[in-house]
Amino acid sequence: MKNFSRRTITGIFIVITILGGIWLHPVSYIIIGGLLLTGSIYEYYRLISHTGLNPQHISGIITTISVYIVSVLVASGSSSPVLYLIIILEIIYIIIVELFRYQDKPIDNLAHTVFGIVFISVPFSLFPYMAYGFRGPAPLISSGTLDFSPGLMIGILLLSWSFDTGAYLFGSWFGRNKLMERISPDKSWEGFIFGLIVTILIAWPVSLWIDFPGTTGWIIIGILISVTGTLGDLVESMLKRKAGVKDSGSLLPGHGGLLDRFDSLILSLPVVFIYLTLFG
Predict the structure, then answer these.
(1) How far apart are CA 255 and CA 15, in angstroms?
(2) Pairwise CA distance, residues 131 & 150, whole Å
(3) What per-residue confidence (pLDDT) applies to 135?
(4) What is the C-alpha R_g of the chain?
(5) Does residue 81 contact residue 74 with C-beta atoms inside 8 Å?
(6) Cα 206–Cα 261–Cα 219 angle in degrees, nearest 5
(7) What are the boundaries of each domain within the chain?
(8) Which stretch of DSSP H or E encloses residue 126?
């Protein structure tokens, strides 16, 4: 009960802080995305270090932040996509640096350094792309940017949190059939199904507030989030089990670290973005 109360209080704080920052102004929106990205990549490398490997923390973090900054500039129309070529140079630098680190497992270190960049920067760098060029509610403080709206990201987060809450509560009380016990013993099919139902139900009022991409579109997004969010959570659980740790961090009492709380976005954001690009 004590852990549940702590988890609830922290959850309320997360919702107010993240949604408030995203909705307030384009600058705060970009800052929130950047903070989530930076914290997640830091926790990822820290997690991998528990396995005895030594990825390039600083170079990996700098490259990940670079991807995010370039994405902000390109998504806002301030720069050409050619700017992404900088990332190739940074990856080449990381490969060269490994030659001089005298590590026992250079290939493993390189693999996890680069995988961390892809694993974290791809989903979180879609934050700006989810805000520029899509219709929806304007930020609370107007910035004069006509093609900016935090609506899509707000809706995605609401559906993601609805699924997590429904799956956690119902799974804790009635979960009997394990979803993937060898990776995450606490997850159950009952929790997943109930979380999916809750997410679909919440998609309707979300669509009344944020009209794009319509009620059907939001229901489809809810289903995509439920499935891919669960898979993203399982991927992080697999990494934690390999590292022998319970949580990726301790920043959020009752939830663990940022990566623990936002791991569901790692797969769901790219899939939702692809859906919106093709069918939105």
Answers:
(1) 13
(2) 5
(3) 77
(4) 19
(5) yes
(6) 25
(7) 2-279
(8) none
pTM score, whole prediction: 0.91
Rounded CA-CA distance 1/116 in Å is 35
Spell out the residues 6+ positions from residue 93 whose beta carbon is closer than 8 angstroms to its own: 59
In this structure, how many other beta carbons lie within 10 angstroms of the beta carbon of residue 13? Answer: 13
**The pLDDT of residue 106:** 93
CA distances in angstroms from 108 to 87, 104, 114, 187, 265, listed in the order given: 20, 9, 10, 30, 25
**Burial environment of residue 120 by CB neighbours within 10 A (0 to 12, 13 to 18, 19 or more):** buried
Contact indicator for 164, 157 with CB cutoff of 8 Å = no
What gap in Å lies between CA 137 and CA 245, rounded to an integer? Answer: 40
With beta carbons less than 8 A apart as the criterion, state whether 210 and 150 touch. no
Q: How many CB atoms lie within 10 A of CB 149?
A: 24
Q: Report how far Cα 119 is from the mean position of its chain's Cα atoms.
A: 10
For residue 57, give the amino acid letter.
H
How many C-beta neighbours within 10 Å does residue 263 have?
A: 26
CA distances to 88, 126, 188 from 71, in Å: 14, 7, 37
Two tokens, residue 242? 């390999």
**137-148 residue pLDDT tens:** 888 887 766 688
197 by Cβ neighbours in 10 Å (0-12 / 13-18 / 19+) ranks as: middle
| C-alpha span between 273 and 21 (Å, rounded) | 21
